[in-house]
Write a structure and sequence with these properties.
Oligomer: heterodimer
Strand content of chain B: 15-25%
Distance between the termini of chain B: 58 Å
Largest interface: A-B, 58 and 45 residues
Shape of chain B: elongated
Radius of gyration of chain A: 21 Å
Helix content of chain A: 25-40%
Number of domains of chain A: 2
Order of helices and strands of chain B: EEEHEHEHEEHEHEHEHEEHEEHHEHEEHH
Structural class of chain A: alpha/beta
CATH superfamily of the largest domain in chain A: Aldolase class I
Distance between the termini of chain A: 31 Å
Radius of gyration of chain B: 24 Å
Helix content of chain B: 25-40%
CATH architecture of the largest domain in chain A: Alpha-Beta Barrel
Order of helices and strands of chain A: EEEEEHEEHHEHEHEHHEHEHH
CATH topology of the largest domain in chain B: Rossmann fold
CATH class of the largest domain in chain B: Alpha Beta
CATH topology of the largest domain in chain A: TIM Barrel
Amino acid sequence: MTQPVNSSSPAGRVLNIQRYCSHDGPGIRTTVFLKGCSLRCKWCANPESIASKPELSYDPKKCTGKKCGLCLKSPFPEGAFYFVDNNDEHVKVNWQLSMDCDEALTSLCPTGALEMFGKLMTVDQVLDEVEKDSSFYRNTGGGITLSGGECMLQPDFSAALLKGAHERGFNTAVETACNVPWPNIEKVLPHVDTMLHDHKLTIPERHKKWTGVGNERILANFKKSYETFPNTEFIARTPLIPGVNAYEEHIRAVLAFIRPHKNVIDYELLPYHRFGLGKYESLGVVYELDDYKTPSDDLVQRLQAIIDEAFGRSGQKAPGEK
Amino acid sequence: MATELGHAGSLRRIAINVGAGYVPGINAVVMGAALAAGKMGWELLGIRDGFEGLLHPERYPDGGLVTLSPQLIENLDPAASGILGQSVRIDPFHVRTINEDQMVEEVDMSDHLLKRLQAEKIDGLISIVGGRGLSILYKLHRKGLNAVCIPRSIENDIAATMVSFGFNSALTVTIEMLDKARQSAQSARKIAVVEVLGEQAGWLALQAGIAVCADAVLIPEIPCDLKMLARRLKDKISPRRPYGLVVVAEGAKFINKPQKEEPTSSLKASLSPLATGEASEHVIRRSGQVAQTVATELQLLIAEETYPLVIGPWVRGGTPTAVDRQLGMAYGVGALQALKAGKNGVMISFVPPEMKFIPLAEAINKVRTVPVDSEFIQIARSLGICLGKEL
């Protein structure tokens, strides 16, 4: 991942390449997280993927504090890092004054406590990394999943990645909220086997409240995608947040939207989890759903039963089970 | 940028705004600044909702700026909600917007903000902000803004000022609530573990704990040994006194606290890097989490029943005390005095009996924590209050 960007291969902003994933499409997969998102969902589990530019992260557990102290001096920005008092084991970050830090600066941190989230990578670089698990894909029907952030915000890069993945024989999937202009989707979807797409909230005003924008265009994009790409498989998903969308009416509204389309093969519930909380701290960002709790298994099972019934399935899936 | 006004000297147009988060006494600050400005013959404008009144004037019937004339101010209720409102975010370097493609993004509007101030002929800004807002104001000052900061911290953790306005009101409410918690614990014959504000500094917990003579006070500055705390509580609780009161600052730290094992999760493994769970130490604290932790751990260590309570955000509202009304007025006047004295890029600091002007560069990145050898700590120990660690 450290080789220079090759100008002959399109490049994109990549957050991370995560191997051995089993929740984002069929089989064992490698998920490529891209930087940049066009929504601001308050429950976001990947806050480091939201900004399109690389951004500073700080892991205090790796910081050796006063034994090092490099970041307190030039060339680091004045006031960006500091100690509150003599008892501090780790430096503290002034997130307002540290925003100008870049990879050249964070590479000076000897312990890796300071890092940049996101780097420019070429299609070939990403695919070479993805290729490492090709035997798993062959055995399990897995492949590559583009996630984010919003992968449709980098349509040329995403399309080239997925096309390249197909050429190497990998199954392809994308995770998207589709809050992008239609031409972006039109560019990417021809190279997608499975599109996992989020139905977060059905009422436009509530969608705006919780994600930053209304859902009119998103729903139009979903519908147009189902109709324009009949051979693509679509899986609808809802991140299930108690008190926001974890109720029967939402599930039934989504089912009413997707069931007329035969290529929407499933509807998955993604129970709200709090695995992303630490990342907010690493970024110096306030987590707005501080007091929210994960949905109970009973609630998830009750809502799952509605979906199973709509899809003509008798058995119940455990939450998160494929 | 000042506009000359004939014989009256120079008429200056100064603006005042308020950062995120309500603190009792904000209106008193605005009143103090407006009355002092009026006395100087200056015009004071209030910017609505942080910087939003300037950045998005079209959203406001009055154009986002309100002239704080003495006539308007003299009828202002110091105990009412802030006249200028507040913004959830006050950072003009990262203003959340929806672009023409209906996508949410954060854009740097700091240059636009400075131009708007210039267009309105405003040549000085007074900002009532907390620690984060202080850094933002410093950045704006480095870009040329003539800025004066009035520190606002309900936890009284801004360095270089002895007392932030709002603290006394918060302390008063906390003491009232702790009294009630103690009566409740007494009747229930249990130990109440009450969480109060104080992420980095334990002033509120310590001073309130002293006032009600709590059995224990846990603050971020003194990491607590829960086993030792349990022993001390065991000694204090008897059939004649079968209850207890433990005050915990929300940022309290612990030594030798057992880390919970997190179950392996394939979902977690599928997430992007640094994914953590609740059990990680590298995680944002939830309101009430510390009280819950202490109550649960104590109950496992002693025979008594415990229960958690959270005062937390209740202290952020309400009527300012007499102290905070006076202090607010004084801070407002102090800001005008700073501008009159030609001070630029300073924070108003109250170091009794004086108001001082501290350069913003010296005010940032400092937290006023409780020194472990402070008078308050000694008083608490003399009262027999357990601070979570042996002497």
